[in-house]
Amino acid sequence: MASSTEMALFHTKMENFTDDYFNYLDFNETVMPTSATAVKEQLLSMSHIYLPMLYFFMFFAGFTGNLFVIIIIGNRHKKNARLVDTFVQNLALADLVFVFTLPLWAISAGKYDHWPFGELLCKVSSYIITVNRFSNIFFLTCMSVDRYLAIVRLMDSHFLRSSKCIHLTCGVVWGSSLILGTPSLVYRKLNVESASCIDDLESSFFQGMILLTVFLTFVLPVMIILLCYGSIMVKLRNHWVTAGNSRAEARCRHSLKIVFTIITVFLISWLPYNVLKTIQVISKISNVKLDDDTYKYLARGLIISSCLAFLNSCLNPVIYLFLDKHFRRSAAAQCKFCMGKGDVQQSYMSSNSTASNGISESLGSTAIRGHITLTQK
């Protein structure tokens, strides 16, 4: 929900139109000249037109969707609230803050990557993106662990799944994300010649931080998530074999589909960027000389993969709306209330009671009902 989710580019200085050298930069999409006689060449044709349009679309979609999620979950009655909703709400908040930076990058992209907002906003907006990157995957990992505790360790996780512990966990996630994002404040700057907002990739410390960020925001969380859901699948498979309840099995499959969809979308969104960013930094550290075509392909790949990563921040509300019946009922009740057709809590409790009774009848035991709480995202 986020090193920052940067868009890498190259600045090319063409001396006598024969010798090129490339500096890796972020959040730009053109090869910018660094001398008055240099020829400007765009890595992606017409990107100064469609990139701003894409950024503004993601801004409006992300702002509307994530604000909607926060309002819907915030207006739920305590009796109908789910513990995992705390993680969902914090994830939506992180994405909501992030999308406010997109208009700045849209304007910059429309100006051929010239950053007109000064160095302070350059640093702050990059810092927000970095914090969003960390907090997103941390909250998703927390939700995976919560599902593991609710299903595999149901009887031993009362304290860990208590409201107090979950709020404390959210505080730790935010604190860790704010601290881990600080290098972007130090190593983000305005390029004097091109006036672009870029990272200082000449710093060996920052190069190491980028690789550490890839590990902390992708490799390690993916390992934890796979471990959690591997254990969940084994547990549910054993339960289905012994219980033989096709109705309960169908509900569990639907619940897991919601969670797997959210995790899968995140992995697809971030995998290309993390791979290409790792290649970029490792080649920089090892002083590997790549030919000009390879540089350009890498730069283009980083541009496209960065857009894909940004898109993740406005997709989660869509997933909730289409796959999570619990969330959809809450949204319908809220809409009825806004149109003056009833009390929001009463409408929600009424629509939710039928589903709750159905689950109770099909499962019959408290322990199994706890398993079906997978619909909590």
Radius of gyration equals 23 Å
Mean pLDDT: 75
Q: Give the overall form.
A: globular
Order of helices and strands: EEEEHHHHHHEEHHHHHHH
The major pleated sheet works out as: 2 strands, antiparallel
Helical segment count: 13
Low-confidence stretches: 1-41, 347-377
Structural class: mainly alpha
What is the strand tally?
6
- Gap from first CA to last CA: 15 Å
Lateral arrangement of strands in the main beta sheet:
1-2
Multimeric state of these chains?
single chain
Give helix % range.
55-70%
How much of the sequence is in beta strands?
5-15%
Record the SSE blueprint:
Elements: E1 8-12, E2 22-26, E3 30-31, E4 41-42, H1 47-74, H2 84-99, H3 102-110, H4 118-151, H5 163-180, H6 183-187, E5 188-190, E6 197-199, H7 204-243, H8 246-285, H9 292-311, H10 316-323, H11 325-338, H12 344-363, H13 366-371
Antiparallel strand pairs: 1-2, 3-4, 5-6
Helix pairs in contact: 1-2, 1-3, 2-4, 4-5, 4-7, 7-8, 8-9, 8-10, 10-11, 11-12
Word description of this protein:
It is a single chain. The chain is mainly α and 377 residues long. 68% of the residues lie in helices and 5% in strands. The chain has helices at residues 47-74, 84-99, 102-110, 118-151, 163-180, 183-187, 204-243, 246-285, 292-311, 316-323, 325-338, 344-363, 366-371; strands at 8-12, 22-26, 30-31, 41-42, 188-190, 197-199. The protein has a two-stranded antiparallel ribbon. It has a two-stranded antiparallel ribbon with strand order 3-4. It has a two-stranded antiparallel ribbon with strand order 5-6. A hairpin with a 6-residue loop joins strand 5 (188-190) and strand 6 (197-199). It starts with 7 loop residues before the first strand and ends in a 6-residue tail after the last helix.
